[in-house]
Amino acid sequence: MHKKLFIPGPVEVSQDVLEKMAMPMIGHRSKEASELQRRISDNLRKLFYTKNEILLSTSSGTGLMEGAVRCGTLKRAAIFSVGAFGDRWYSIAESNNVPADKFEFPMGEAVDPKVVDDVLKTGKYDLITVTHNETSTGVMNPIEEIAQVVKKYPDVIFCVDTVSSAAGVKIEVDKLGIDICITSSQKCLALPPGLSICTFSEKARERAEKVKFRGTYLDLLALYKYIKKKDYQYPTTPSLSHMFALDYQLDKILNQEGLENRFKKHIEMAEIVRNWADKYFEVFADRNHLSNTLTTVKNTRGISVADLNKELGKRGFTISNGYGSLKEKTFRIAHMGDCTVNDVKELLQNINEILNLK
Ligand SMILES: *Cc1c(COP(=O)(O)O)cnc(C)c1O
């Protein structure tokens, strides 16, 4: 039996979208490929509220995170971490021999914009990374306040991981001054995993021109130059199947559902799960910085999360245990992508039945 996914990626993919993955291949050097990729980029610009170029990579989001740190840092990167995905930026920098410092905040708390200011004020850094929505804790960082601070430092490249929020939460890239904004296919876009997307500003391009060793496969400047020169084609063979599905899904999101409706739906789903958590458990993260795409619930009843998931599995659902050290101490319910208010209500009803919650 298929278990409906309420985990923070991959998420449920609609049947019609899945079917697009099975379309016959086209040549990746054909005019059709150019048209497909240009249309995808135009639509992604609407999703990210940007005039910047869009880069696609046949890798998961981590691939573009690696490309961003490596191609964007000349001096030193400042990594702001509120959990596992913030830490990932730091290990990427370390393993690529990119000088970096990590500034951490306690689990469940958000980045303090004042600390960002204090760090950038030192003049030591020329790139910063922020996780917009920390999937390990359920915190959504105050990206607008952070952006206000970063704007005071025009030499700093602003990289934001919106892997678990883009297409579920409004992220206005140009207004926020984000240079590289990254997402993956398998979260709020509700596609199968395997493709990642980023926006790439003129400032990021100028910076990358000055960085000597940018690697090959994840060289963002090489991707940029190739699509400019070859009318939206890519230097290596991209996952055309993902592009067929993405093209179709973007049309659905932008022209059938409407972006504002999709954002509103995510807020509604989040409120339902938070209210449920308040009633029977507790919400784990800082109340002022709760994610709209997943809720981390504090296991105040001391239930066995593993057993709960086993029982849910028999009924055709699955949720996530806590991440890392938060395992069994918390559990996570994702409400992102094409998931609906009714799906969420059905899940919670089933949890109530299993745990005998009234
Ligand atoms: C899932 C996730 C990632 C990792 O993305 P992949 O596509 O698996 O590489 C990075 N950051 C956040 C916030 C995520 O939720």
UniProtKB/TrEMBL annotation:
Family listed: Belongs to the class-V pyridoxal-phosphate-dependent aminotransferase family.
Pfam families: Aminotran_5
Residues given in the record as substrate binding sites: R332
Molecular-function GO terms, alphabetical: alanine-glyoxylate transaminase activity; L-serine-pyruvate transaminase activity
PANTHER family xref list: ALANINE--GLYOXYLATE AMINOTRANSFERASE (PTHR21152:SF40), AMINOTRANSFERASE CLASS V (PTHR21152)
Cofactor(s) the protein needs: pyridoxal 5'-phosphate
Modified residue annotations for N6-(pyridoxal phosphate)lysine: K187
Assigned keywords, A-Z: Aminotransferase, Pyridoxal phosphate, Transferase
Protein name: Alanine--glyoxylate aminotransferase family protein
The Aminotransferase class V domain, residue ranges: 27-326
Biological-process GO terms, alphabetical: glycine biosynthetic process, by transamination of glyoxylate
Gene3D superfamilies in the record: Aspartate Aminotransferase, domain 1, Type I PLP-dependent aspartate aminotransferase-like (Major domain)
Domain of life: Bacteria
Keyword Transferase: yes
